[in-house]
Amino acid sequence: MGILVQIEHVDGQVADGAHELLAMARSLGGTVEALVCAKDATTVAAIADELDADTVVAVADAVLADYVPAAYLTCLAQAMEDRAPDLVLLSYSTAGIDLAGGVALKSGREMVCYATAIERDGAVLTVKSQVYSGKLTASTTLPLPGIVVVMPGAIKAPERAGGSAPVEELVVDLSVSQSIRHVENLLPDSDGIDLTKAERIVCVGRALGGTDKLPLAEALAVKLGAEIAGSRPVIDAGWLPRARQVGKSGTKVKPKLYLMAGVSGAPEHLEGMQDSDLIIALNSDEQAPIFRKAHYGAVCDMFEVLPALTEKLG
Amino acid sequence: MQTLLLWIVTLATLVVFAWRFGTRLQPLFSARPVNRLDRPGERFSGMLGDIGLHRRMLRFTYSGVLHAMIFSSFLVLFTAIIESFGSVLFPGFTLAPVGGETWIAILQETFALLILVGLGMAAYQRLIRKPARFEGSRKGDAILIYVLATGIVASMLLEFASAIAITGTPNPYRPVSSLLAALLGQVGVDGHAAETLHMSFYWAHVLIILGFLAYIPGSKHRHMFLAAPNIFLRPLHPKGQLPAVPTLEDEKTPSGIQSFSDFTWKDLLDPLTCTECGRCQSVCPAYAAGTPLSPKKLIMDLRDGMSTGEAHLPIVGGVISEDVLWSCTTCRACMEVCPVHIEHVPKIVEMRRTMVEAGTLEPMLQDALTSFQSQGNSFGKPAKQRARWIKGLSFKPVDARNQPVDVLWFVGDFASFDARAQELTRMVAELLHQAGVDFGILYDGERNSGNDVRRAGDEGLFELLAQQNIDTLAGCEFNRIMTTDPHSLNALKSEYPALGADYDVVHYSELLLDLISAGKLTPKQGAAAQVTYHDPCYLGRYNGGFDAPRDLIAALGHDLREMPRNRKNSFCCGAGGGRIWMDDSAFHERPSENRIKEALALGDVSYFVVSCPKDVVMYTAAIQNLGVEDRISVRDLAELVTESLE
Amino acid sequence: MKITVILRLEPVLTEELELTNDARDVDREWIGLDMNQFDDQALEQAILIKEQTGAEVVAIAIEDEGTDRMLKTALARGADTARLIPMDEYDVESRSSRAMAPIYAMAIRELEPDMVLVGVLSNADIYGELAPYLAAHLGWPQASAISQVTLGTGQVTLRQEYAGGRSARLALQLPAIAGLQTAAQPPRYVAGSKLRDLLKVQIPELNIEAVPGADLAEATTLALPDMSGAAEMIDGDAQEIANAIHALLEEKGFV
Description:
The complex is a heterotrimer of chains A (314), B (646) and C (255).
Chain A: E1 2-6, E2 9-10, E3 13-14, H1 16-28, E4 31-38, H2 41-50, E5 55-60, H3 69-83, E6 87-91, H4 94-107, E7 110-121, E8 124-131, E9 136-142, E10 146-150, E11 167-169, E12 180-186, E13 200-204, H5 214-224, E14 227-230, H6 232-236, E15 257-261, H7 267-273, E16 278-283, H8 290-293, E17 296-299, H9 302-312
Parallel strand pairs in A: 1-4, 1-6, 4-5, 5-11, 6-10, 7-10, 13-14, 13-15, 15-16, 16-17
Antiparallel strand pairs in A: 2-3, 7-8, 8-9
Chain B: H1 2-29, H2 40-52, H3 61-89, H4 103-129, H5 139-167, H6 175-186, H7 191-215, H8 223-232, H9 265-273, H10 279-283, H11 285-288, H12 295-307, H13 322-327, H14 333-337, H15 344-358, H16 363-375, E1 398-399, E2 407-409, H17 413-417, H18 419-434, E3 439-441, H19 451-455, H20 459-474, E4 480-483, H21 486-495, E5 505-507, H22 508-517, E6 530-533, H23 547-555, E7 559-560, H24 591-600, E8 607-610, H25 613-626, E9 633-636, H26 637-645
Parallel strand pairs in B: 1-3, 2-3, 2-4, 4-5, 6-7, 6-8, 8-9
Chain C: E1 2-6, E2 9-11, E3 33-35, H1 37-53, E4 56-62, H2 67-77, E5 81-85, H3 97-111, E6 115-119, H4 130-138, E7 142-151, E8 155-161, E9 167-173, E10 176-180, H5 192-197, E11 220-223, E12 232-233, H6 238-251
Parallel strand pairs in C: 1-4, 1-6, 4-5, 6-10, 7-10
Antiparallel strand pairs in C: 2-3, 7-8, 8-9
Helix pairs in contact in C: 3-4
């Protein structure tokens, strides 16, 4: 079975998700080809060195210096045509969202998203995925050739083995995909906050309901010496600054203690915190998906437990 | 000469008075219309009762009594004012032929003393006792009035006294003045000196009166003129029916409160009538909880805003801050206690409507209202799950949409969705079933009644919810509606009639009482407990449902110990008017906890009996927060009945 | 300038989900539908653009239980027009993003907007997101995970968000499609009076001659998640829970 893996990187820095995809591809057996799009051959070579693949299929073009949906789409589509893999793996990331649907339609392949596991039984692939914000799991028999978009963290990537896969250049005419132009990169507006460095984090979710009760969480954070963080709805509502967002579109954190209150645990949030050493979750919904990821959980009213815990901490 | 002079100063004063009063009344003429002249007989008799008998005033005994003294004295002493002005303005005029120097004189003497005592009590109250309800009232204004009133009475007595001193013959009808005359005689004032003094006191008397008159339009003592009309013009529609948004002819959707002319003229008359007595403030649960709302300050701020024409400030969010408006629980205690029938709650709701139209809402309230819009309840639960509470019943309740029933049970949101309240809802269902009541429910056809949505300020959403319920009910056959929820009761009974729907609505306390009286349910005697009972605002104050719950408690053999604040004076749990959906961290002491403390202070009361699903939730939490679970526990009426049957 | 916003209804997730007997779908009996929260953001962004530039906003939705109410909400929020795409529930096997994409695409061809805004994701099915499918159907440029939209002449500038708080500005030639993650402001509240005023308004239909796309609905079964390896649950009232967490933090050396 031929598997093509889309490699994401930022300026040559390979994303964790890409290594995970390679690991998943290896676990399925067959030949693993990695598609690398980068600005030049040097960057391609540097990236290729890190990848555990059988072949690195590379497109080097100045247009690819930054992620541009249209150009990357063209590359992936052409690589799929060229290599005709049985399976294409992408990460569930911004690029994964952008590209998967497009190439699925263009190639007429079936595509399954939000995958947490792929099982292979001979020529039959069964994809397990999460739907309804993780409240249900789906099991799909995927006909090949197919495409799977994999949740970050679905598989643990081994320590960087590195690789010596041969690089095969793919020539792609990118002049046809000028409809999207990269204007500039924007750095995170950090306000001096770096959650990745925090050893302890108290994270609040939508159930906070507004800034009025934020002090309850902040008081606990102060007592614990923790940073305060929020899930996406909290940030979108403006209750906390963007630099305090944990999750897919925010920061990925790995603290020693991650205490969360009122966060339901949508996959996009789990992605940003699932590697924390100790996860304690408070939620009023006993079915909240977070209770599957947390180490300890309590079904409760966070507005009662937070102050009680703060007081207990003296 | 004197006549001319008095004419000049009197007319000049009247002009000043009229101008000062007129400028203050001016905004009323450009305000929105409202009809307050219907049922004149009822208006008049109510006004006479409230003024003549001081009905509301006397609920606060000390101030009620002192005000009665001053007020009655003022009426009597008005004869002296007539005499003083009449005799000089119209030479030859005198009250003597009708008893001005005999029975009227002795009355004047008596009431002059009475008013001085009353003024003394008022000053003592204002300066020494300083009840908390005066917090925020203008002390200087009050003191100046005491001084002027004392001046009027003193100058009158001294005028009479100096008149008596001229001849030196005591007047048996004027014992006080005669005594003062004797004192004047002792210090050598008689004859010509007394005449001069008489003239001086006369002028002092009329000038202080005129000064008082000129001062009044800018003082809280305007109420001398406005209290009676304001009481006459009081609302007579059902207490539970909020006035609709007043629309003008050429207007499709009301603009909300952008300027003072967007209020009704009655809304503007209220602030001018306010006496700053602070009775409203003293009974307000939001004020007691430490929120920025004082109903008195709200009315005073509106008054000052409209008279200083603070055009640069928006009214909502400027003259009155948003926090103040969101703090109200709409419990109506302020309106019930106000001696001059000021309508605080409709104004607050009207200003909330303005905020809702502009989309500036408390975030938690926004979530709740959004949930109402999509699912018809505040719990964010699918409308389809409304009747899920029936799981676990020993029978399946009739769907009243498919089959005629005697009693249609309008369950309400809390009773349907809140986990603790659901248990009680099931209990009520089993009781009705056991008693053989032919009843049914609307299942997922029911929507929130809209009672508190309306009070939170979303008029349109209220209408949508109400109309959905009215349409559903129109397709059902039933004799009466029963509900355990006073908020739903209020909407169905008092609000829906304004939308053209009239039902016979009973509270479950009445129905359960009927069932016991009719022998359909037979409580066992002997398990008597000491209990206290909390009147829900929307059952008691709004709809007069004071007795059925008490009779039911008595019928079950319990010993009811009343809390000091009971019946009309009951203290709100803090959940009404949409407050239950808002953040309560602004409360320094939650009203519900304040109330539990009141119950605990009764001593050995083991049950805090409630008759409202919201109360069950609020007071259970309050008892937990106070950590007094071992001393008192919440019991719903349905629980009491169920326990007594087991 | 014309913007089309796609609004989709999704099961309310605050409740326990139950499955149909064949485990192919969520049991709709007790489940309510509500607007996809990202579509809500897309709608808000469209209205904000309208307020800034005077663009015309058309909201579209495929008929389902509650679509009418949702489209009226869109009108109340400020959309200029709303169009309902009729769909009989018995005629469609699946309402997945992949199945519905041809329908939406045809609707967009009909409406000819300069810009299509739709929520970045809907995880009510396994087929990924609607915006990229639409782009492929229409041959328009597309970008997802968008948090800023600046509409210019002939092009739109989007802010696309990536992991780790990074983002970039992209310029797309119009017509284009954006998968909205966050509007510039949280969705506004619309007073009930606006909805009431729309009560009698009939939402015009938009009849589409298009065949739903094929998906793997027949090859998919749903299940409640396996709870093994889930959190160790702490029971009790608020104080007991606080005490237990405190003890835990002590044990792990955090206090």
